[in-house]
């Protein structure tokens, strides 16, 4: 090969190598674009959260608040109709059975067995001692409302509940470590209960009152509160304040049962005004209970944060 042909062959090799490199570059670019397209497709399907979407510059679909609020109101209305249907069914079928088989026999038994003073002592003792043995005291509260009304019945119930809230507090203090171990099984509930033992006197009083209003079981809280550092004075005063709504509602339901039992026993009918009054009173009692309970739960969440 001559010397003149050498540069031409080198040029041909350079052209071939450059063409090969350009081809490989195009292939790499196409592969990268394909991978990016696949990632973009996955993002469009919604597999990325808001933080990742902001990082990659992807706009996620925004939910319209109107549709959510309308669906919430639909559920509220349906729930209200279901509750009204349950209340109507109870008044039509459950209430007559309860009056015939429970209320009237109990009232007759009380009249034949106990005098007025003895009945007061029995009600206070049952309301005070049943929670010690983890038994519900609501039936005794109903009987207090049925027999003695709002004024004297309220005093009887509060006297009994003061004993029923104090005895478990002092008895549970003897088993402080065991109750703490028992609460460790439910860490979320334990965290709420421990709010009663934090802060100053007013903070403990407020936490106990809110826990009494909330749907936390009454007889369980009497013992579980011992696992905190709450003092007796804020505990008992907060318990008094927190149980007042429940006591009034229980006495009201007892008076309503007594009125219906008298109507059934004496064979007379309520007037339209009395029916409206009882229905409105029952609905207001239920609505007030729900509002107070929701407020207590919200306040407890605020105290936790």
TrEMBL record:
Keywords: Membrane, Transmembrane, Transmembrane helix
VTT domain span: 135-255
Protein name, per record: VTT domain-containing protein
InterPro entries named among the record's database cross-references: VTT_dom
Database matches in Pfam families: VTT_dom
Keyword check for Membrane: yes
Signal peptide positions (record): none
Keyword Aminoacyl-tRNA synthetase attributed: no
Ranges that cross the membrane: 72-94, 114-136, 148-171, 205-225, 232-256, 276-296
Organism: Picea sitchensis (Sitka spruce)
């Amino acid at each position: 090969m001559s010397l003149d042909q050498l540069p031409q062959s080198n040029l041909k090799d350079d052209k071939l190598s450059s063409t090969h490199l350009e081809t490989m570059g195009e292939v790499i670019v196409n592969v990268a674009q394909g991978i990016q397209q696949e990632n973009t497709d996955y993002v469009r399907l919604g597999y990325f959260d808001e933080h990742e979407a902001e990082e990659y510059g992807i706009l996620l679909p925004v939910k319209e608040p109107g549709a959510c609020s309308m669906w919430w109101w639909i559920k509220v209305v349906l729930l209200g109709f279901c509750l009204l249907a349950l209340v109507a069914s109870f008044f039509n079928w459950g209430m007559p059975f309860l009056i015939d088989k429970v209320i009237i026999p109990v009232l007759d038994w009380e009249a034949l067995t106990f005098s007025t003073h003895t009945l007061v002592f029995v009600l206070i003792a049952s309301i005070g001692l049943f929670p010690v043995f983890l038994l519900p005291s609501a039936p005794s509260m109903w009987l207090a409302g049925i027999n003695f009304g709002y004024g004297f019945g309220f005093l009887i119930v509060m006297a009994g509940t003061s004993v029923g809230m104090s005895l478990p507090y002092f008895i549970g203090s003897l088993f402080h470590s065991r109750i703490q171990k028992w609460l460790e099984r439910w860490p979320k509930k334990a965290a709420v209960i421990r709010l009663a033992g934090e802060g100053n006197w007013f903070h403990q009083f407020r936490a106990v009152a809110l826990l009494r209003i909330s749907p936390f079981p009454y007889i369980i809280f009497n013992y579980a509160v011992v696992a905190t550092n709450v003092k007796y004075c804020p505990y008992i005063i907060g318990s008094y304040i927190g149980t007042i709504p429940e006591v009034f509602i229980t006495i009201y339901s007892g008076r309503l049962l007594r009125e219906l039992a008298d109507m059934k026993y004496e064979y007379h009918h309520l007037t339209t005004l009395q029916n409206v009054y009882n229905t409105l009173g029952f609905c207001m009692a239920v609505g007030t209970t729900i509002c107070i309970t929701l407020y207590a739960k919200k306040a407890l969440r605020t105290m936790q944060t």
